[in-house]
RNA sequence: GGUUCCAUAGCUCAGCUGGAUAGAGCAACAGAUUUCUAAUCUGUGGGUCGCAGGUUCGAAUCCUGCUGGGAUCACCA
């Protein structure tokens, strides 16, 4: 094994990976007026990628007098090198052959910098290999940093609204995608340096809850969650279904007696009753309010259990019953300043044709609100309450148009916050049997799904013979952790905006690109670390002159990307990017694990470096999974 | 019909602002356990990147058109 002499001294940070002060100043001056990828970053924290990029920019400028915007990509496996600079654009402007340009730059880089080990040129690709000690130092720096916590806290504040359930039925699979997305995006934004408020807007009023109320009043016989042995939300959901049954029966008999179907739908007594109840509710009828509070109370108890079980939470809960009348003042404001216009029937509209949208009603002729009216008011309220710089709505893509309209109106009303509004739109969750339809009873209930998955996790653990006492509290925690890990990862690994297929069998899979695979990887590492804890000081002392093998280097390579992955995931509101990264990291560790031993390694330097390395891998996995809302076990 | 999103291996999905021979997992087949957890690892087969043009040194990626699918186009929420 090669044993390179230590060329790194203790001032490495200020001298080696970072640019020398004088050099730095020259670069800044040099690139100030020009657009250069990396030079622009000099004020910020420098990572190895930026350093290399800047050095190439310098080289090109010195050699050819050209200002090139350099971007780098990891060198493909089939070529030698760490990073590749693609310079086809230079071939044209410099009118020289690719080989000549590549060699000129490569030679210059090697002669004038100490980071580079070698280079090779293939067509317009300059493959650069960095010296081993660069990677050791990258690792050393990583070990000194706290995982995922060096991003600063200076990006402002953001509100993430998600979940937003209706109080007439329990949560289903579609809600789970919403909840997991919302929670994860909140965590990611937080990690990226935002101050986050997690908000939930409960849809607790309206015709849907009145339907449940009417059905309960008619058929409920004073049933309670206790007497029925049902979670509150399921009990109320049951009466929502009862309503629908009775409604359909009434329609059928009306049609049999000669009504048209359209007429029957309007005149069915139970529907009339529901509408009357809504009216009573709006008039604050005490009896109605009492019933409403009772049923909603049950539902909230049920939701609370579900939220606790799936591990999501909120900092602020808004209730539509409090906010549904808001927005009318905005309508007045809009009329006053000419953003809105009024028709003869007194209804109020906005013309959004310039924005590529349509005319939109914002207030009915009788002065009552529509959906968008409420949302105008609620949006103002949210920004007023929290003074957030940004606001994210996690809502399904069936409301894409609604949010386009909402944001366009806010802009027209001159709300400064309008540019900070973002609709995180996600696709539907399909089942192998097709679309989920609540009316056809093909919805997958959230509570049921979670408990099924916990049971499966238990069964699989039993089958593997991994767990001794299946009934212990610790085991139960583990099964829940695995079940939720599988479910959350399955729903989050797909890019939010894409429609996705939920295959029950695949979702509880523990192999391949799954949550439990990553959880298992973490448990494996912790198992080693239990045998070989080592103080940080010792690791830092020893890594200096160690020669990394390819598997170790690959891990370092991935680990150093972690913070930028968080930034990217935050910028695109995409937990999927983080999920993919974490999978890649876990997989890479397992390759390392299959080929190298940590505790049985005879070379002490190697052993301690590996202990440090895998500790960092475990921390990164844990942190990243945490951002997905997934816990990882110490053993499994 | 207008608007909008999507289309990549048998299946489920990656593929960042255009870069080298398009990648994973599952499924199939063949291997690996005296060694820190085999819920792991290694290998094999599998592709008209929906179709057709365009932009250029270079396109799964950008533009246009077409086909297929989803969503939406309520004085519902």
Could you explain how this protein is built, in words?
Helix 3 crosses helix 5 and helix 23 runs antiparallel to helix 25. The strands form 4 sheets. This protein has a 5-stranded parallel sheet, with helices on both faces. Strands 1-2-4-3 form a 4-stranded antiparallel sheet. A 3-stranded antiparallel sheet has the order 8-9-10. A hairpin with a 2-residue loop joins strand 3 and strand 4. The chain is built from 26 helices and 14 strands. 40% of the residues are buried. The longest helix is centred in the middle third of the chain and has 25 residues. The protein is of the alpha/beta class and 636 residues long. The two termini are 36 Å apart. It binds one RNA strand of 77 nucleotides through helix 4, helix 17, helix 18, strand 14 and helix 21.
CA-atom Rg in angstroms: 30 Å
Q: What can be said about the biggest beta sheet?
A: 5 strands, parallel
Class by SSE composition:
alpha/beta
For the largest beta sheet, what order do the strands appear in spatially?
A: 7-6-5-11-12
In total, how many beta strands? Answer: 14
Shape, principal axes of CA atoms: globular
What is the helical fraction, as a range of percent?
A: 55-70%
Mean pLDDT: 88
- Give the assembly state of these chains: single chain
Query: What's the tally of helices?
Result: 26
Strand content: 5-15%
Provide the low-confidence segments as ranges. 1-45
In angstroms, what separates the terminal alpha carbons? 36 Å
């Amino acid at each position: 094994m090669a044993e390179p002499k230590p060329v790194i001294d203790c001032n490495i940070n200020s001298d080696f990976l970072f640019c020398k002060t004088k050099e730095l100043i020259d670069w800044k001056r040099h690139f100030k007026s020009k657009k250069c990828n990396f030079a622009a970053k000099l004020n910020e924290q420098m990572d190895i990628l930026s350093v290399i990029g800047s050095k190439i920019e310098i080289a090109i400028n010195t050699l050819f007098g050209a200002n090139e915007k350099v971007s780098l990509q990891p060198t493909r496996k089939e070529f030698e090198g760490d990073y590749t600079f693609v310079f086809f654009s230079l071939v044209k402007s410099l009118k020289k052959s690719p080989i000549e340009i590549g060699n000129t730059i490569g030679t210059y880089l090697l002669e004038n910098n100490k980071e580079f080990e070698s280079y090779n040129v293939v067509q317009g690709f300059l493959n650069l290999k960095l010296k081993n000690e660069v990677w050791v130092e990258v690792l050393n720096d990583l070990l000194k940093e706290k995982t995922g916590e060096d991003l600063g806290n200076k990006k402002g504040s953001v509100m993430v609204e998600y979940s937003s359930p209706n109080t007439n039925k329990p949560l289903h699979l579609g809600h789970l995608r919403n909840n997991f997305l919302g929670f994860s995006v909140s965590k990611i934004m937080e990690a990226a340096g935002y101050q986050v408020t997690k908000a939930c807007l409960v849809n607790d009023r309206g015709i849907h809850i009145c339907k449940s109320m009417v059905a309960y009043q008619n058929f409920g016989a004073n049933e309670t969650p206790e007497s029925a042995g049902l979670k509150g939300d399921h009990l109320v959901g049951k009466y929502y279904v009862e309503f629908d049954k009775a409604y359909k029966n009434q329609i059928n008999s009306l049609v049999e007696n000669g009504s048209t179907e359209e007429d029957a739908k309007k005149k069915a007594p139970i529907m009339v009753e529901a509408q009357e109840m809504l009216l009573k509710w709006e008039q604050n009828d005490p009896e109605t309010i009492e019933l409403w509070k009772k049923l909603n109370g049950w539902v909230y108890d049920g939701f609370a259990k579900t939220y606790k079980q799936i591990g999501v939470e909120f900092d602020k809960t808004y209730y539509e019953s409090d906010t549904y009348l808001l927005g009318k003042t905005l309508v007045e404001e809009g009329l006053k300043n000419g953003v809105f216009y009024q028709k003869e029937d007194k209804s109020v509209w906005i013309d959004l044709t310039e924005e590529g949208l349509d005319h939109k009603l914002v207030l009915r002729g009788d002065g009552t609100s529509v959906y968008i009216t409420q949302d105008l008011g609620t949006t103002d309220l949210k920004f007023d309450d929290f003074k957030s710089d940004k606001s994210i709505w996690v809502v399904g893509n069936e409301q894409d148009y609604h949010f386009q309209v909402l944001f366009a109106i806010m802009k027209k009303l001159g709300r400064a916050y309008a540019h900070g509004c973002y609709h995180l739109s996600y696709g539907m969750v399909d089942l192998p049997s097709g679309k989920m339809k609540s009316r056809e009873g093909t919805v997958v209930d959230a509570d049921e799904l979670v408990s099924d998955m916990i049971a499966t996790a238990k069964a699989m653990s039993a089958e593997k013979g991994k767990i001794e006492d299946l009934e212990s509290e610790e085991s139960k925690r583990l099964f829940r952790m695995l079940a939720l890990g599988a479910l959350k990862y399955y729903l989050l690994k797909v890019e939010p905006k894409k429609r996705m297929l939920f295959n029950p069998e695949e979702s509880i899979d523990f192999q391949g690109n799954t949550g439990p695979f990553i959880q298992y990887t973490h448990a494996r590492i912790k198992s080693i670390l239990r045998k070989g804890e080592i103080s940080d000081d010792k690791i830092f002392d020893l890594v200096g002159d160690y020669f990394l093998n390819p598997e170790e280097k690959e891990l370092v390579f991935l680990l150093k990307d972690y913070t930028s992955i968080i930034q990217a995931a935050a910028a695109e509101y995409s937990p999927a990017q983080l999920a993919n990264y974490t999978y890649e990291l876990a997989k890479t560790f397992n390759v390392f694990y299959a080929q190298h031993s940590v505790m049985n390694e005879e070379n002490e330097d190697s052993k301690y470096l590996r202990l440090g390395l895998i500790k960092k891998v475990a921390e990164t996995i844990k942190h990243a999974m945490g951002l997905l809302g997934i816990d990882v076990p110490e053993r499994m």
